[in-house]
Design a protein that fits this description.
Blueprint: H1 5-11, E1 30-33, E2 42-44, E3 57-59, E4 63-65, E5 68-71, E6 73-74, E7 78-82, E8 85-89, E9 98-99, E10 107-112, E11 115-120, E12 137-145, E13 147-153, E14 160-165, E15 171-177, E16 183-189, E17 196-203, E18 210-216, H2 219-222
Antiparallel strand pairs: 1-16, 2-18, 3-10, 4-5, 5-12, 6-9, 7-8, 10-11, 12-17, 13-16, 13-18, 14-15, 14-17
């Protein structure tokens, strides 16, 4: 099976495609919207992670960035495997806390021309290219948010699930997105007060996926 690396290298210089759908009125707990419709003040990229072209580098510890921490899953969740893909079972424990995975099976960073992307490493483990993009990505935010966005890289007509969680570990919503392509995705919470404390990204894409340019509000700038 052709894996994540091949489509990344082939599509690296291609502009991210716009969402192939128009934003519409949405009364769900979390709505999928165009990234351009959101005014988000804080951006996280992964340019400073040492890595190289090809399989890149493994990240075995939690990855900390201003405003967020990145891991494999959340405390209280058990890791399951479905084929080559990571899955979870159980509820996240309060307070929501990101955890790393096993060495070589947590996160990875890969350099593409012009950018560095973050992906989950599956059970086959680093440095096997078959592991790239098939693991989960858990993101624990320092503050609760009402909107966020990220760029998805490497999607090849598969599907991903984004699970939105509160600080107490309870689930707000889960959104299935797909067929996947290299697109920007925005998410807007329908609630009086922002309460998205973290997200978990899983996928079943035949090539695996990665993310780049995570954006959310910085309360120091927005009041």
């Amino acid at each position: 099976m052709v894996r994540l690396i091949a489509p990344f290298l082939a599509l690296a210089m291609t502009a991210l495609a716009p969402l192939a759908r128009a934003d519409a009125a949405c009364d769900a707990p979390v709505c999928l919207v165009s990234r351009d419709s959101l005014a988000l003040s804080h951006l996280i990229d992964f340019e400073d992670i040492p890595n190289s072209m090809g399989i890149g580098t493994a990240i075995d510890a939690l990855l900390a960035r201003p405003g967020a921490r990145f891991g494999e899953r959340f405390a209280g969740q058990a890791l399951l495997v479905e084929g080559d893909y990571d899955r979870v079972e159980g509820l996240a424990r309060p307070p929501l806390t990101a955890l790393p995975g096993a060495p070589g099976q947590s996160l990875g960073a890969m350099r593409l021309p012009g950018t560095v992307v973050l992906h989950g490493l599956g059970q086959r483990g680093f440095p096997r290219d078959a592991a790239a993009g098939e693991g989960m990505i858990a993101i624990e935010f320092e503050h609760d948010h009402g909107a966020l966005a990220f760029d998805l890289r490497g999607g090849e007509q598969g599907h991903a699930t984004v699970i939105f969680l509160r600080r107490d570990g309870s689930e707000i919503a889960r959104l299935s997105i797909g067929p996947l392509a290299e697109e920007s995705y925005g998410f807007l919470r329908n609630a009086a007060q922002p309460d998205i404390a973290g997200i978990l990204i899983l996928n079943s894409d035949p090539q695996g996926i990665a993310i780049d340019n995570l954006a959310f509000d910085d309360p120091r700038l927005t009041g």
